[in-house]
Amino acid sequence: MKNKKIVLIAHYGEDYYKSRVDFLNFLEENNMDCISFVPDDDYRSKIEKLDKKVYYYNYSRSWRFIFSLITVYRFFVKTFRVEKPDLLFTYKFFPNCVGILAARKAKINKIVATVAGIGFLEKKDQSFLIKMVFLVYMRILDKASLVVAQNSEDKVLLEKYMKRARVIMTNGSGVNAENLILDNYERFLNDNALDKNKKYITFCSRILKEKGILELINAFNVVSKDQPFPYDLIIAGWFDEKGLEERVVDLSKGNAQIHILGYQKNVANILQISEVFTLPSYYPEGVPRSLIEATSLAKIIITTDHKGCRETCIDGYNGFLVKPKSHNSLIGALNKLAQMSAQEIELLKQNSRKLFIEKFDRNVVFKSILNELSE
């Protein structure tokens, strides 16, 4: 029997390298032949070492992408007609839009589009232009066979607009904890002036105001001001908002327990030294991969009672849910954490790992997708 041919479109190289290759490996383990389309960016040299069949396309993660729309669309259509895949997987906004339209033009029968949060389209009721983009996006998604949401709120929203496509929900995109491999651990500690004998709470994300970074620093400054707080705070990630880095540095000034590390290629190093992972986000998330990775390594979670984030934390079971945009709620959670016994801390950590195995492990998520496709 001939193997099914699968095509996958990723929206940038790092995402493909760190998040999609594991899914391709799973598909190949299930006797499928896989081909990928990946933007030609800084990760090309790493991707070329993976022994995967990959086509590279031009894409900019800014408004300039509009200049490549027609060229990329034609490239997709042409290559789809040559490869004749049985099934297409697309991820996130640009691949969903261009990939779905190209696939329909090339007469691909099955299309699975993953919506990992709706991002800026969350503001559709605040802007006529965004509303129009949102409605066009919904019409394109409806041309897919299956639309995958990653939290219950997005699933409900998508179901309102999908007349043809079927909407399902998965718990994230699937994480393999075995892929979280340490680099030189001692060197990492030394390079970042960290002490392996200290306990750390870590924030590691693309840094936007809506990720709750300012509320987090304000809260940490309060709990660590008058008496020694048993945890230091690590802030890692790249700043993706003008003027925000200066505000973060200014707020952190004078607090020796705050460590700003910048962008980290290997999140495993930070997770390894951390006992707690926090993301007090009110951004329109899917399910943040960083939170899932933290549960996979048995870290206590402090995050917001906000769509996508709340999927990774049961309040009091494996961490604490806080109110979005509330540094007072964060203060309460941090103080609770500081007062817990070693046994209580250990139980929260074990529960995080249990939650990961039940909901987020790659085998659970990937099998759920294949099961939906076989129906």
3D architecture notes:
The protein is α/β, with parallel strands linked by helices and 375 residues long. It is built from 14 helices and 13 strands. The strands form two sheets. Strands 3-2-1-4-5-6-7 form a seven-stranded parallel β-sheet, with helices on both faces. Strands 10-9-8-11-12-13 form a six-stranded parallel β-sheet, with helices on both faces. Helix 3 crosses helix 4, helix 8 crosses helix 12 and helix 11 crosses helix 13. It is globular, with a radius of gyration of 21 Å. The model has no long low-confidence stretch (mean pLDDT 90).
Q: What's a concise summary of this model?
A:
With 375 residues, the protein is an alpha/beta fold.
Described by strand count, sense and barrel closure, the largest sheet is: 7 strands, parallel
> Total number of helical segments?
14
Instruction: Specify the helix fraction band.
Output: 40-55%
Helix/strand-derived class? alpha/beta
Quaternary arrangement of the chains shown? Answer: single chain
Question: What fraction strand?
Answer: 15-25%
**Spatial order of strands in the largest sheet:** 3-2-1-4-5-6-7
* Global geometry: globular
Which fold name is given in CATH as the topology of the largest domain?
Answer: Rossmann fold
Distance between the termini: 20 Å
CATH C-level label of the largest domain:
Alpha Beta
Number of strands: 13
- The CATH superfamily of the largest domain is known as Glycogen Phosphorylase B
Q: How much is the average pLDDT?
A: 90
Helices and strands, in N-to-C order?
EHEHEHEHEHEHEHEHEHEHEHEEHHH
How many structural units, i.e. domains?
A: 2
* Rg estimate, integer Å: 21 Å
Q: Provide the low-confidence segments as ranges.
A: none
